[in-house]
Specification:
Largest interface: A-B, 77 and 77 residues
Number of strands of chain A: 8
Largest sheet of chain A: 8 strands, mixed
Number of domains of chain B: 2
CATH class of chain A: Alpha Beta
Mean pLDDT of chain A: 96
Order of helices and strands of chain A: EHHHHEHHHEHEEEHEE
Distance between the termini of chain B: 36 Å
Largest sheet of chain B: 6 strands, mixed
CATH architecture of the largest domain in chain B: 3-Layer(aba) Sandwich
Order of helices and strands of chain B: EEHEEHHEHHHEHEHEEEHEHEHHEEEEE
CATH superfamily of the largest domain in chain B: Thiolase/Chalcone synthase
Helix content of chain B: 25-40%
Oligomer: heterodimer
CATH class of the largest domain in chain B: Alpha Beta
Chain lengths: 244, 409
Amino acid sequence: MIATTVRRWSAWSPGLEDANAWSNWCAAPTELASEGRPDARFLPAMLRRRCSSLARILLTAAFECCKPTELGEVATVFASRHGNINESIELLDRLAERQPLSPTAFSHTVHNAQAGLFSIAAANRRASSSIAAQGDSFACGYLEALTLLERDPDRPVLLIVGDVPLAPTFAPLVDEPPGSYGLGLLLARGGDGTQIAFGRESEARAPNAPGWPDAIEFLRWYLSGEPSLVLGSARRPWRWERLQ
Amino acid sequence: MSAGSPGCEGVRASRPCSLAALGIVNALGRGSEEIWPRLLAADQGHFRRRDDLVPGRDLLVAEVSGPLPEIPPRLKRYACRNNALLLTALQQIEKPIADTIGAVGRSRVAVVIGSSTSGVSDAEAAIRHKHLTGTLTEAFHYDQLEFGGASSFVADLLQVDGPAYAISTACSSGARALATARSLLALDVCDAVIAGASDSLCGLTANGFSSLQVVSDEITNPCSVNRNGMTLGEGAAVFLVTRDSGGIQLRGVGQSTEAHHMSAPDPEGLGAESAMRDALEDAALDAAEIAYLNLHGTGTPLNDAMECAAISRVFANPPPCSSTKSLVGHILGGAGAVEAAFCWLVLSQRTSGSLDLIPHAFDGQRDPELPRLRLVPREGLRTSLGPVMTNSFGFGGNNCSLILEAARS
C-alpha cells in the first residue's frame, strides 16, 4: 500500500458548509442535498460570474483546504464523474437548433475548467490533472494525486473531488447517490496530519454502497476513527487504512 | 497486504518506463507501417471538407476515412466513434497486450485514456433526435459521453481489472495519460498500463473553436507569416507501457499550468517554457542533447508566437523542430498521445544511429517576427540519435512536455 499524509480536509454540500456541520452529519449521515451553491466571495466578481455551480463548489473546497501561502504552490488533481457535462448539454441543445456557440461558454465546458479557474484565481502554475472514472472517480482521483506526489514528492497535492446532479436529459441514465458536493484533501508525503495507506483491497468483495458519494463516505470514515475503509466495486475494491 | 510501505519513496532513482508497443490511427492511416512513410513524405493529401459540422461553413478537417471496427455486442453501451478509434488502435497491438496480461495477471494491468471529446459526436446525434422526437436515440448510452466511459471501455474490452480512468485536461490529455502511466508503474500499483488517448471530430469542438475564431479555412500553416488558425483532426494512439528497461523509454515528464486565461496561452510562453524545462530536469538532460522537438504548433498566431519564444529561451541552439498538425490536424485531447507516437516512430525507425525526422509542412514563408527555429525541411532531415521531445499545451493553461529516448544498450 502507499502511505500518504492527509494534512487537511475541506468539504461543501448544501447545508453542510463548515467542519462543525460535517462532524454532526458524520454522527448521523443522510443523503446530501442537491440544490444550492456557495457564495465563493473569495473569487473576483468577474471570475465568479463565469463559475458554474460545480466550479463554485470545487473552488470553495479548494480555497478552504489551503492556507493562503499554499494556494499558489500545491499541485492539483480535480476528480469529477460528470464535470461540466451539464454545460456541454446546453451547448449541444444549441447545436441541435443550429445556434452559434458562445466562445466563453465553450471554453468553460472542458473537463479541466475548474482546474483552470483555480489556477487563475490562486495564481497557481503547478502541475494539474483532471480525471473521471465513472463510479470509481474518487479512488482514481486519489490515485492520480499519488502519481503527482510520485513525480514531485516534496510538493503537496490538493485533491478536489465533486459533482452536481446530472441535467434531466441524462439523469435517468445514471444510477448514483444524489447530492451536490465537493471534498478537498491536501495530501503530502509527510508533515502534520493523519497518515493513511491506500491500495487495492486483497479480497474480491463488493463493498457496501453508501447512500452518498464515495468521497463523502471517505470523509465520514476519516472523521470516525474507524481503522479501515473499503470502497469501489467487487472488480476494483480499494482500501484505506489509518496508520496512526 | 503490508500497510505502510513507502510507496512514494525509494522508487524515483530509477523508473524504467518502456513504451513497448503502439497502436495508432489518424487521417494518415491505420498502423505504424501505413502512417510512417506518409509522415516522412509530409503527405497533406488526407484533408477533406465537411459541411455538416458548423452551420454555413465548409470546414476543412483531417478525418479518419473508411469504416471503423464494430464495438463488440457485449460492449454496445460504449459504441461511439471515439471508442471505435480506440478499438482500431488496440487491435493493432492485441498480441503484445494479451501476452502481457497473461504474464502479469488481469488485476495488474491499468488503463489510462486521455480525451477531450469522448463520445460527444454520438451524444449530438442523440440530442438532435430528442429535439425532433422527444426521446434520445435508442443506441445512446451515457457511457459513450462521460469521460470515464473511454477507460471503462478499454478495461472491459481487454478484461483487465487494474485501476482504469480517463484524463481530460483539454489538449494535453494524451500527454498526461502517458505521464500518469509512468508514475503508476513507479508506484507499483500495476505492472503494465494501456495508456493513450482518442479524440473524434464533433460539432461541439468544431463550433466551439470556430466561435473562438481559431480555425483556418485552409490546411493549418504553422510558423508561417500567413498562418491563420488550426485544422481539426481526429484519431487515437495507444501504447502498451511496461517497466522494462529496453525499447523506447518515456524518459522525462514536464508539467505546468499558466494562471493566465481559460482559452489563450500566456503570450510570453512562460508556461510552455516551464513545462519544457521541467521535462529536461526530470530526464536529467541538457537542452543541447535533444535531437528533435515535435511542436505543439497549432498554427494559431498566438500559439506559434509563444511556443517559438519559449523554445528560443530553453534552447540556446534549438533542435530540428516540426509540427505534425499540418499532416493530421489538431487531435485535441488525442494530440499529446498521437504526437508522442510520432516521436516513438522517429526513434523506433532509426537506422544505424541516425534518426529520420518528420518534415515541417507549411507554405515555406517563415514569420520573420518569430524567433528562428530549425524547421525540418520538406525533403526531410537525418540527424544523429538522441532523445526527442514533444509539447502539448491545453485550454485552462494545462501544459505537458514529454521526452522519449531509445534505451541505451
